[in-house]
């Protein structure tokens, strides 16, 4: 990979050359199995002597609680929601991701700016404005996008929580009065946006309709190219 860099101006005072760790992103919609894959990757990489840190959406101690409360009322405006998530990301970038990379950790990101950008754009945000908003982001060492058919996603979500989420179904967009139909339409729109991002952001698209084991095997093979090998941890 080329030298570490930001997508835009970045974080003031941070020299990307000082960040000697690796940033690996696993993207994919709810129900795609991201968390399962990241847990498996963490165990695998730690067993090989790598130090691991994780990040994900809505994990900032600065705004995550307020964001959850606002979402629960289903009344967030599009711009307010966008700025909430951008603040959540910026706080984690400055206080979790960058320190971990400075210390030489492998950071596994359970989604990154791409989901946030796609959500904003599908809700009518200007793509140029969204790109500027996330110009603080570091360019990852690898991005893996789990692609799952919307029909499979809805089955998995129901199996996990027995209900669909207002925002993850795109109900705020008025796509359909029926939440199930809205979910399918919303996920298809997001999928088209991700397909359009693939070349620009150098995604490695992974067929997420397969078994967790098959997906993990592919991820490990590709990630080993990025991080190399480390000495196994003594038992």
Main beta sheet: 5 strands, parallel
Structure classification: alpha/beta
Q: How are the strands of the largest sheet arranged?
A: 2-3-1-4-5
Q: Compute the number of strand runs.
A: 5
Low-confidence stretches: none
Q: Topology as H/E string?
A: EHEHHEHHEHHEH
How much helical structure, as a percent, in the residues? Answer: 40-55%
Walkthrough of the structure:
By secondary structure, the protein is of the alpha/beta class. It has a domain of 149 residues: Rossmann fold, CATH 3.40.50.300. It is built from 8 helices and 5 strands; from the N terminus they run E-H-E-H-H-E-H-H-E-H-H-E-H. Strands 2-3-1-4-5 form a 5-stranded parallel β-sheet, with helices on both faces. Helix 1 packs across helix 8, helix 3 runs antiparallel to helix 4 and helix 4 packs across helix 7. The longest helix is centred in the middle third of the chain and has 25 residues. The model has no long low-confidence stretch (mean pLDDT 89).
State the gist of this model.
By secondary structure, the chain is α/β, with parallel strands linked by helices. It contains 8 helices and 5 strands; from the N terminus they run E-H-E-H-H-E-H-H-E-H-H-E-H. The chain has a 5-stranded parallel β-sheet, sandwiched between helices.
């Amino acid at each position: 990979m080329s030298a570490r860099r930001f997508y835009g101006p970045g974080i003031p005072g941070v020299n990307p050359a000082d960040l000697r760790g690796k940033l690996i992103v696993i993207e994919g919609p709810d129900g795609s199995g991201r968390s399962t894959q990241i847990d498996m990757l963490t165990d695998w990489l730690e067993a090989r002597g790598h130090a691991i840190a994780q990040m994900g959406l809505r994990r900032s101690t600065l705004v995550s609680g307020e964001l959850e409360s606002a979402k629960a009322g289903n009344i967030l405006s599009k711009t307010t929601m966008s700025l909430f998530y951008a603040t959540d990301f910026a706080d984690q970038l400055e206080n979790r991701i960058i320190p971990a990379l400075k210390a030489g950790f492998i950071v596994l990101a359970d989604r990154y700016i791409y989901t946030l950008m796609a959500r904003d754009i599908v809700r009518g945000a200007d793509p140029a404005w969204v790109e500027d908003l996330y110009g603080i982001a570091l360019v990852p060492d690898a991005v893996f996008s789990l692609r799952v058919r919307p029909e499979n996603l809805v089955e998995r979500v129901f199996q996990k929580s027995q209900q669909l989420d207002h925002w993850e179904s795109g109900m705020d967009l008025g796509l359909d009065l029926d939440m199930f139909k809205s979910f399918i339409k919303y996920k298809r729109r997001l999928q088209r946006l991700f397909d359009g991002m693939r070349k620009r952001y150098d995604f490695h698209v992974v067929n997420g309709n397969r078994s967790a084991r098959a997906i993990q095997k592919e991820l490990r093979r590709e990630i080993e190219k990025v991080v190399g090998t480390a000495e196994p941890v003594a038992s």
